[in-house]
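>> received
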Amino acid sequence: MIAKASDWYKNIWSLDIKNHSWVEDTKQQIDFIIKTLDLRKDQRILDLACGFGRHSLELSRRGFQVVGADITKDFITDAENTAKKEGLSAQFILSDIRDLKFNQEFDVVLNLADGAIGYLENDNENLKIFDVIANALKSGGKHFMDLCNAKYAELNFPATSWEAGENALSLSSFEWNTEKKTMLYGGKTIPYGEPLGKPEIVNGDAIRLYTHDELDEILEARSMIIKKTYSNYYGKSETPKELQLMVYSIKL
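>> returned
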């Protein structure tokens, strides 16, 4: 694959993402997060890089106070329209995460489906997302992020995978740059019932991945500590044999 320009994350998103197979797991993911973080209805939640609001909206349907933020206008417009249609209280902000200026206003911060962590132009820019997380959290606040595991990438990439959802087939291709600790990810969604030619994934998104130890150091520098890690939304412990790395941390 050929890496896209370093600002790829600003321009690639569209509402076609709703057809991806993993969108179907939203309710189960929220079930796990509510249970794992022991969420209460009186807590304010910030959903960073919320996309079209699938997690924010599901939390709002269950009575939680949620603010979602994303850089893509179509996503925020769609999320706002859904909230209005369903009479939900969820609020949405169109913004680059780095421009958010919250100061100890939230009990919980979420970065789900990567939450844009590792998407930015270089390591210094990527660390700014962790600054926003720490600044937004109240003392004792909780953070949960769902990332790809750098240890797994080192051991298993290059690789390809596919997942069959109810509406489409999702194809994925992965490569690994050891020096930059960067995953190159390319994907293609094939809706059922349409004529199929040979699927090709030519370009990839460059995403900086982290190990548990790196995240531990990054969070500790921001007065946060890791409480628990997982490798899936069913509570399996972190392992380098699984691509997902989910980290539950708290702010001291």
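>> The mean pLDDT is 95.
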